[in-house]
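Sanity check

After download, print the first record. It should look like this:
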Amino acid sequence: MKVTQGDKSSCPNQIIVFDKKLKSGKNQAINDLISKFKSDDKLEFFELRSVEGQIYMIRGGLDQEKLRVHGSKVRSQLDPKAELISCQGSENDLYAVLEGFVLSSYQFVHYFKNSEEKRYALQAILVDESFDQKRIEELFNINEMVSWTRDMVNEPVSFLNATQLAKEIEHLGERTGFKTSVLEKTQIESLKMGGLLAVNKGSIDPPTFTIAEYKPKKAKNKKPIVLVGKGVVYDTGGLSLKPTPNSMDVMKSDMAGAACVAGALGMIALEKLPYWVIALIPATDNRPGLNAYAPGDIITMYDGTTVEVLNTDAEGRMILADALAYSDKFKPELVISAATLTGAAHRAIGEHAAISMGNAEDKIFRKLEDAGIQTHERVVRFPFWDEYFEEMKSSIADLKNIGGPSAGMITAGKFLEHFVKAPYIHLDIAGPAWLDKNSAYRTKGGSGYGVRLFYQFVKGLSHE
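Expected structure tokens:
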């Protein structure tokens, strides 16, 4: 799909974003529609069908998220065979409408027999010549990177094992402009990444550790921002086996953190933001086979910390810990991890936001929260007191990999903090990363959460 500027006269389908400044056109059907709209302040969305085609009107000046949702409503009512639509209206409002429109057009069709036929037919969106060309390109790039992220989360482990995930990220880097280096099992062993290797012991597929880097020539930050994503491509729980109903059946999504940081890096590279950003992605599946790691094992991590394993289903923090410790190699100014880490996070705030916590400065948290509000990929900050870390101490090792029965999302975050030397933020995205049904422009399955958030966060940074 592409969004472009052009003449809308040849297109029968229109989205009209209406605000008080919009002047009546020559088309009587549109004039009648505007008059009706003005007479009803409570009316936010409706459809008119005429001999000319379909005309959709949305009131301008609304909250940006409402406009995105209205854009998705238009998409749901548009003839799926339509190849072209044209739009007019105030630029900021129209951009939000189109963002909701294009993001809701995603379909995961890899496994349909006639997959190409099932793809959405829309080929282009025509906008007024005054619409900023850079914003058009940005919208296209957002759609591409969110769709890529959704594809990765939706792919089953029968295709997307750790090795394939690394290959997909390499291909993404080639397409968008970031560099990629993939460490294979022998290299991971030489680095003594005990957490990643332990989780991988039950699998017949080897682990990978992907290092992706975007470094523009005139980067504003002298020290990089490091994004770390959990890449558990499938999670059975290991020997601490999950029950299948409503848990294991969607565990192909347990690499959503890895997908979102890679997709965000692709977006940052496509838009050529002037910031040095690195993504670290440890990847493996977690299975109970072969010589699987077991409750009671003591694991020595990359940084030498010993960890008593009490639950093999707390595997995400084991692989993230190695990656977080490895991040110190780059002397970063900030480290942010993203992971579908705990059911506790999902239970706490549901699917409408991610949980954030960490030790970074308050102003960094505010920038992240502002980015979440702008994109509606919201984050809610939880406490991060040292008392929570006390629960993670072991009587026979440095740490244990689970805490008590309460505040599991925070104790997991405190476990991770131990391995990071730089200022740190942890995002538990277990709630919004996977949806059981469509929610406006957020599609069923992998939602693509985090791509727009991280992009907007980096875009909004300021360095002297």
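If your output differs, re-run the checksum step. Summary of this record's structure: Residues 372 and 378 are 4 Å apart (CA to CA).
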